[in-house]
Design a protein that fits this description.
The protein is globular and about 55 Å long. The protein is of the alpha/beta class. Helix 3 links the parallel strand 4 and strand 5. The longest helix has 21 residues.
Length: 302
């Protein structure tokens, strides 16, 4: 890792998470190679160079990883047909990983999801070694699990699988600030209010990703202290405990519709972020601030 100006490749740099990661990297004096599919869509920041193309293209992967220190992958086409998710995630992401490995890149930081874990009613708290959902649980968890497994097969690279739950934060591509509220407005608002709502703010998520990518989090033999050198290390990143009463209540109040509370069995455990905290991560955005930001954003768009 270069001492002064690490070079970090970021895929999906125009997305909610990708753009936040670019901002966090620039704040840490990194130079960013931002991969986007549409020209002019990368964050306009000093230190960010736009590269237009498909990050799963082997030629582009080799070009952007040359002399780079780290790669951050944030691309996964949620909502696309399963074959598209498989092609981009399971088949495509390892192409970039192998190019990074062959170029001597120190670290690959992959944005996975806490959605790969079994969080059914009665499971309790979930840490990184929690049970994963079995094949057949849905297109998104299936392809995310398969992508994680495929990346673990790329040897000779230090890989970190960052697993956030619901990602809050303002942005046109935000699932939980924009897309989910549309579904709620259209009638999808039936849930047990006590069901756990695991979340993290995008800026806090980006802070951990940037610290790992720039080497601020040192490798360690014990994953409780840092990523395992040459191995694949998952890390859960979640904010303070919350329930669906917090999230759905905020959204329905802002939209002027009524929630439909049920008493159906629900997961009431926590996602444990002890590993991330052991790496020095401390979330800065609390639940009250996140809900206030969510409410103000919804009211502004109504």
């Amino acid at each position: 890792m270069a001492e002064d100006t690490p070079v970090v490749v970021v895929t999906g740099a125009n997305g909610l998470v990708g753009a936040a990661v670019c901002r966090a990297l620039v704040a840490r004096s990194a130079r960013v190679r931002a991969i986007v599919r549409r020209a002019g869509s990368a964050p306009a920041l000093d230190g960010v160079t736009e590269h237009v193309g498909d990050p799963t293209d082997a030629d582009l992967a080799r070009a952007v990883t040359r002399d780079a220190d780290a790669v951050v992958t944030t691309v996964h086409p949620m909502g696309s047909p399963r074959e598209v998710q498989h092609r981009v995630g399971v088949e495509g992401t390892p192409v970039l990983a192998r190019a990074a490995r062959d170029a001597g890149v120190a670290r690959l930081v992959h944005l996975s999801t806490a959605g790969v874990y079994d969080r059914s009613a009665g499971v309790g708290d979930v840490a990184e070694d929690g049970a994963l959902l079995p094949e057949g649980s849905g297109d998104h968890p299936d392809t995310k699990n398969a992508t994680d497994a495929a990346l673990a097969q790329v040897t000779g690279l230090t890989t970190v699988l960052v697993r956030p739950p619901a990602i809050l934060g303002a942005g046109d591509t935000s699932i939980w600030n924009t897309l989910r509220p549309r579904e709620i407005r259209d009638g999808e608002r039936r849930v047990n209010p006590l069901k756990s709502f695991a979340w993290v703010h995008v800026e806090d998520l980006a802070a951990l990703v940037a610290d790992v990518a720039t080497g601020a989090v040192a490798t360690a033999d014990d994953p409780r202290r840092g990523p395992v050198a040459g191995g694949t290390t998952p890390v859960i990143v979640a904010g303070e405990p919350a329930t669906w009463r917090d999230y759905l209540g905020t959204v329905t109040d802002a939209l002027g519709v009524a929630p439909e509370w049920t008493d159906e069995p629900a997961w009431t455990g926590r996602l444990l972020s002890d590993r991330a905290r052991g790496w020095g991560w401390t979330p800065q955005v609390g639940l009250a601030q996140a809900m206030d930001e969510l409410r103000r954003g919804l009211l502004a768009r109504s």
